[in-house]
Request: fold
Amino acid sequence: MIKKYDELNSVHIDVLREIGSIGSGNAATSLASVIDRKIMISVPQVQILENNEAVKKLGGAEKIVSAVLVKCHGEIDGMLLYLQSLEFINVVLRNVLSSSVERYEQLNEMHFSALVEIGNIMISSYVNALSTLTGLTIKLTIPANTINMLGGIMNVPMTEYGYESDKIMIINGNIICDGQEIESNLLMVPDIASLNTIMKKLGVLGG
Amino acid sequence: MKMQRREGKLITYALGSCIGICLYDPQIKLASMIHIMLPESSSPKPDNVFKYADTAIDETLRKMDVFGAVRRRMYAKIAGGAKMFNVVGDSNFGNIGERNVQTVVAILQKNGITIKSRDVGGSIARTLLLDAETGEAVVRSFNQPEKKL
Reply:
C-alpha cells in the first residue's frame, strides 16, 4: 500500500514514466492532426516534486501561464492540468486560427476556445493511455481554463489533496514543431487511493 | 510566516485560493505576513503550522505577543481566496478559497483584531506586499492595476 507520494519507488516511477511516454505519444499524434503539422517529442521525464520546487522549476510563482484543468472520476479520482506557455499557444494559434499574440492579455474568446480544446485533447490522450494500459474506466469533466500566476494554479491540486500530500507529479517533455522546441508540461494528480489502484492493476504493488 | 520591524517589506507570491494575512501593530511598527493554504488543521500539532489558518494565526499572534504587540492596537489586511478554475458540473470544486476567507475572518474576529481592508474572492491570483514601516499593503495581479489595501 502506498500512503504518500514519497513512498513511490523506482519501479513505480518507471511505470508512471511509461504511462507518461505513451500518453505523450498519443498527445503528439492528436496535436499533429489538429494543427496539421509534423510534431516530434522528446522522451518525457516524470518527476515527483515538492510543490515549491515544482513551481520554481516551471518558471516561478508569478509567471503567467495558461492552464487547462480536467478532473477525473470513475475508477480513478484525481485531476490533470496542462500548462500552456506563450510559445505553445502561438504554435496552436498560428496553425489553427492563422493568428498570434505577443502577450497573454491579447488573447480573445476565439483563442481561448481553441486553447481549451487543444488542452482537452492533450489531457484526454494521456488519460486514454492510462485507461488502455490499466483497463480502468476513467471519466472526465468538461475542461476548465484560466490564465493566471503559476503559483496560484499549482496550488489547486495542493489544496484539493493538501491533507494527503505536499508532492506533485509532473510529466514534462518537449514538443518539436517547425524546428522550434517547446516545453510541454502535464501535471497528473491522482489521489493516493487511485495511485494504488493503478499500481495494483499493473502488477507492481508489492507488500 | 515572516516578521519584520520598523523597516523593510514583506511579500508573499501568487495567492490563489490561499490567503495572505498581514498583521500590523502601528505603534511599535511590527509587521507579520502569513500565507495559509487550508482553513483548519486536522491535528492540533501539524507538521507545518503555517499551512492552516487556525494554527498559523495562533502561532503568529503568539510570536507577535512576545515581541510586544497589543491586540487592540493591531489590524489585519487580507488578500486571496480566489477560485482558480470553474469546473462545470462540480460546484464544490475550488470553493476552498471561500472557506479560507470565512475561516480567516472568523479567527481574526475571535482574537479581537480589526480587518482594515481586504481583497478576496474573484478568480485571479494575487501577490501581496506589506510595508513594515507604514503598514501599507499592496496587491498586484495579472492584467490588473496595482491595488492599495
Notes: The CA atoms of residues 140 and 146 of chain B lie 5 Å apart. The two ends of chain B are 19 Å apart (CA to CA). The interface with chain A takes residues 13-18, 37-38, 42, 51, 82, 84-90, 93-94, 96, 123-127, 141-143 of chain B (CB under 8 Å). The helical segments of chain B are 53-66, 96-110.
